Amino acid sequence: MKVNTDLHVHSRFSAAVSRDMVLPVIAKEAARKGVKIVGTGDCLFLPWLDEISALPEEGGLFCLEDTRFALTTEVEDCHRIHHLILVPEVSKARELRDGFRTKSSNLDRDGRPRVRMDGAEIADLALEAGCLIGPSHAFTPWTGMYAYCRTLSECYQEQASRISYIELGLSADSDYADRIGELSSLTFLSNSDAHSPRCNKLGREFNQVEIEDLSFPELALAVLRQKGRGLTLNVGFYPEEGKYNRTACSRCFRQYSVRQKDELLGRCPSCGGLIKLGVRDRVDLLADYPQPVHPSHRPPYLHLIPLAEIIAMALGYKSTEAASVKRLWSELVREKTEIEILVETDLAGLDTDPRVREAIQAFRSGKVVLSPGGGGKYGQVSLPSGRLLSEEVKPEVEKAKQRSLFEF
User: Fold this and answer.
1) Residue 57's beta-bridge partner residues?
2) In what order do the strands lie in the sheet with 61-64?
3) Which helix (H) or strand (E) segment is 6 a member of?
4) Is 34 left (phi over 0), alpha (psi -120 to 50) or beta?
5) In 3D, which of 270, 300, 298 has the Cα closest to residue 375?
6) CA angle centred on 142, ends 377 and 390, rounded to 5°
7) Strands 37-39, 2-6: pairing kind
């Protein structure tokens, strides 16, 4: 069976995370989105682990109504690189926690711990505990592996061959990553890294996996692409929507070329802020191929815009928090999940505002226009008519038609 998974979120116990990131709310919103398996995040933090452990457990997943939770955590190493770890059971989470105890000053204060260990040492502990590990949002310029390393081996050393996946992050997709030859054997994960359960955060990126039952061993087989299991689809942002896609000032967000960045010694002449190398330019520097070379096991990547954002654009609102947007979204997901509405439903029979039907059709056809983000500011999406999710900017990138889920 095919199920949707979002394996990287955070709990209310992590810094800068909504207090609403609690298990019942996450479960409810994931179900409305159409995501069946959600990563718990922060499973090394004891109060959160205790809350998870109190849920019924089946096959290594924790059950809350129609949602299943898989134990996951994100760890920051001594070089600021973030690592996503998938954990098979509670005892292994405690074992991993014990291994980090003497190497972390905030293990008991923050759901996402910092540890005085490098990637190889973290991988040693994780693999010894029977976990799966790979770099989180691998291309992000502040905390991604490729911001500091040119290769997997530079980060994970002798454990590089045992790294099973990378997380793409919001500013990259399969086309970006498959220009780097060493990644051809790895699974690509597209997760939300949600800090809020809002409908345009949780599940904004997800993975569709082929598994035989809802269990952690089956999920692990899918990530490892073993015994006929695997990913059948990656779904997420257009890379240009990510807030680190283009090289830009991290203070005023003015965008620069790599040459300009180097000539300016990495400082913005307008405000003095730090110019951060964007994901697109970093991939260009690392690339082995001028165009992506997808291995036979690589699933399609479907660029999906959250339904709330489509509604906001269609109705002319600047925010997905507008009352009319929230009301219409709630009405639409009353009978179907958001994913079903976006990619499967016959729009002719969809009882909603005609402008919303038109906007969903434009999304399905790939007729969206993008103004790329950079420096920490998200890119913006508009419909061909010019209706934008937020303030008006001149569209810069127009995307060609993409296929729907029915065609994969």
Assistant:
1) 62
2) 57-58, 61-64, 67-70, 37-39, 2-6, 206-210, 230-236, 301-303
3) strand 2-6
4) left
5) 270
6) 10
7) parallel
Strands 248-249 and 275-276 turn out to be antiparallel
How does pLDDT run along the chain (408 residues), one tens digit per residue? Answer: 999 999 999 999 999 999 999 999 999 999 999 999 999 999 999 999 999 999 999 999 999 999 999 999 999 999 999 999 999 999 999 999 999 999 999 999 999 999 999 999 999 999 999 999 999 999 999 999 999 999 999 999 999 999 999 999 999 999 999 999 999 999 999 999 999 999 999 999 999 999 999 999 999 999 999 999 999 999 998 999 999 999 999 999 999 999 999 999 999 999 999 999 999 999 999 999 999 999 999 999 998 889 999 999 999 998 999 999 999 999 999 989 999 998 889 998 899 999 999 989 888 887 888 899 999 999 988 887 655 543 333 334 555 555 544 444
- The angle formed by the CA atoms of residues 15, 329 and 2, to the nearest 5 degrees, is 75
| Torsion, CA 349, CA 352, CA 354, CA 355, rounded to 10 | -130
Choose the CATH number for 2-239 among 3.30.43.10, 3.40.50.620, 3.90.190.20, 3.20.20.140. Answer: 3.20.20.140
Coil vs helix vs strand at 70: strand
Classified as helix, coil or strand, 273 is coil
- If you search the block for the tokens 């999406």, which residue do you land on? 381
* Cα 33 from Cα 23, distance rounded (Å): 15
Q: Which of 80, 113, 86 is nearest to 99 (CA)?
A: 113
User: What angle separates helix 323-332 from helix 307-315, to the nearest 10 degrees?
Assistant: 130
* Tokens coding 65: 């109504």
| Delimiting residues of CATH 3.20.20.140 domain(s) in the chain | 2-239
Question: What SS3 class is residue 207?
Answer: strand
201 neighbors 194 (Cβ within 8 angstroms): yes
Global pTM exceeds 0.90: yes
Report how far apart the first and last C-alpha atoms of the chain are (Å, whole number). Answer: 15
Spell out a b/e string for 84-112, using b for 16 or more CB atoms within 10 Å of the CB, else e. Answer: bbbbbebebbbbbbebbeebbeebeebbb
Instruction: Check if the beta carbon of residue 283 is closer than 8 Å to that of residue 259.
Output: no
